[in-house]
Amino acid sequence: MNQYKFLNKIKSPDDVKKLSAQELVTLCAEIRDKMINTVAKNGGHLSSNLGVVELTVAMHRVFDSPRDQMVFDVGHQCYTHKLLTGRFDDFDTLRREGGIAGFTKPCESEHDIVISGHSSTSISSACGLAAAKTLAGKPGYVVAVIGDGALSGGLAYEGLNNAGRTKDRLIIVLNDNKMSISRNVGSMAKYLSSIRSKKSYINFKSDAGRVINKIPLIGSPIKRVLFKSKALLRYAIYHTTIFDDMGFAYLGPVDGHNVESLIEVFQTAKEIERPVIIHTYTVKGKGYTFAEQNPSAFHGVSGFDVETGEISRSSTSFSDVFGDEMCKIAAEDDKVCAITAAMKSGTGLSDFVKSYPDRLFDVGIAEQHAVTFAAGLAINGMKPVFAVYSSFLQRSYDQMLHDVSIGNVKTVLAIDRAGIVGEDGETHNGMFDIALLNTLPNMTVFAPTYFCELRAFLRDAIYNCDGPAAVRYPRGTESAMPDDFTPSLGSFDIYEGGKDKLIVTFGRIFSYAYDAEKKLCADGEKVSVLKLNRIKPIDPEAVKYALGFKKVFIFEEGVTQGGVGEHFEKLLYSQGYEGKAFITAADMPYVQHCSTESAMKKLGLDSHSIFSKVKMG
């Protein structure tokens, strides 16, 4: 569909308000078509966005953005919102360098209120926004959209606990699709399922509404009164809900794909003088059969064929190798357990859960709980491995410090997506885990470059470290290994080419450093490469080797402050080093969405940049 009847004419939310109910249905179909075809080319988050099309259209029909502020949790379900807020003409640039982001970004539009790339944050953000409006006497509502999966995160409950006690104009939309990324787990998932199952209440409300609406003149006023006073009816069927007990007015469940019903419930919520929870039930992947049948696969995709639903597949990844090695280790040792925070497939644990379901613990979107839970497992004799994305591990720093490091509790972190991840941008780039882990006493950190090293270092972390350990590895596949290089699987490796200048690096940057070294040597430079495999603690012998060079160039895929470069430089000079050391790392730690290759170039970590830095140094 190259030309749309309504969508390409939507320049602001005001245009949504001009459409009839039937025209809104057509608009929703056009939005789905645009999203499917764009994500098929650019990659992105599809299932979650397809599930909130009608919901977002209804919100913009009833509320007045940006006076009424909308907060999406997680921000990657904002594609419809972007299409309705003047970004249709730019939507083809989604997640492309210089184009619009895959998450909400205030610098991109006045309709994007907060940057949101992590789960369970919306209620707390909305609570603060609404309180500020009340204090300043500003008009407007604050609407937070949060998925049922995000309710497995503790921050969501902290927000609910405070929001329900206010008198602010706050509306929370619970988008209940029975899915986060992996299938939802825990007591809240079961509780919401029990609410959804009360068809007697849902059917009564729907039937009563249709009958009352047919009464001339007074139908709509009576229906609104009943909607607002339905607490007695709900109490008779449910007894109550947890949300009522926390101080919210609870409306729902509502069909999240019926625009008219959604508009009606939003209008009712605006008339209630206390915080409101609107419980909608939706289908993740709605409107695209392949995504409906397999929402997890289409949660985040790099691209796919629209007609067949065939997803673009990359080569074997570090995540795949990690999952495979975990299965092998678990077969040998029945004390080995795996923990995931709602990311079984993303972290490569899909086969593990099939083979060892009793030893795979999916704790939901609760990274803090995962770390302390792992500590408990370890104290009682198990060997837990928590597989987590680098940018999500940040949430559990306190638990790593207090519950693991102080007691030197033997737990293992498998840190996926370390370093640059590409088009997901600054909220997902794993640039801070090294600096965080470097502050933790007793922690050992490995940084494999190749799959064989990942397998070896994972076993080292589980069996050969006295305290907590981490293995960090990038998104995607391994780089090509030089023909004349054989990994030692030790704490460091040396690739010798001369004794004048030394390149020090680790992880996948080694492949760039190797390419640069070959060109430098061909250009008459005497350059060697020191590849660190264990980046905490740094082997003293590696530092001793570096002392023999006039100039040391350190390249790091992470932030400068607290990184490997700073620590290596300090160790050098503490040993009386009289040469010069140079550090190249992420001085721009919030790297915007772009390809990994482009990001490496911007950070000065690609082969050409390394060549130029060492040549001129």
Write a concise synopsis of the structure shown.
This protein has 617 residues and is α/β, with parallel strands linked by helices. Helices cover 41% and strands 15% of the residues.
What global shape is seen? globular
* CATH architecture identity of the largest domain: 3-Layer(aba) Sandwich
Instruction: Identify the CATH homologous superfamily of the largest domain.
Output: Thiamin diphosphate (ThDP)-binding fold, Pyr/PP domains
Number of DSSP helical runs: 26
Any idea of the CATH class of the largest domain? Alpha Beta
Determine the mean pLDDT: 90
CATH topology name of the largest domain: Rossmann fold
Number of domains: 3
- Uncertain runs are 199-209, 225-239
Structural class: alpha/beta
* Spatial arrangement of strands, main beta sheet: 7-6-8-9-11-10-15
* Strand segment tally: 17
Indicate the percent of residues in helices: 40-55%
Beta percentage is 15-25%
Most strands sheet: 7 strands, mixed
Measured between the Cα atoms of the first and last residue, the distance is 55 Å
Give a verbal description of the structure.
The protein is of the alpha/beta class and about 625 residues long. α16 links the parallel β6 and β7. Helices cover about 40% and strands about 15% of the residues. The chain folds into 3 domains: about 260 residues, 3-Layer(aba) Sandwich (Rossmann fold), CATH 3.40.50; about 160 residues, 3-Layer(aba) Sandwich (Rossmann fold), CATH 3.40.50.970; about 120 residues, Rossmann fold, CATH 3.40.50.
What attributes characterize this protein structure?
617 residues; alpha/beta; Rossmann fold; 7-stranded mixed β-sheet; 5-stranded parallel β-sheet; 17 strands; globular
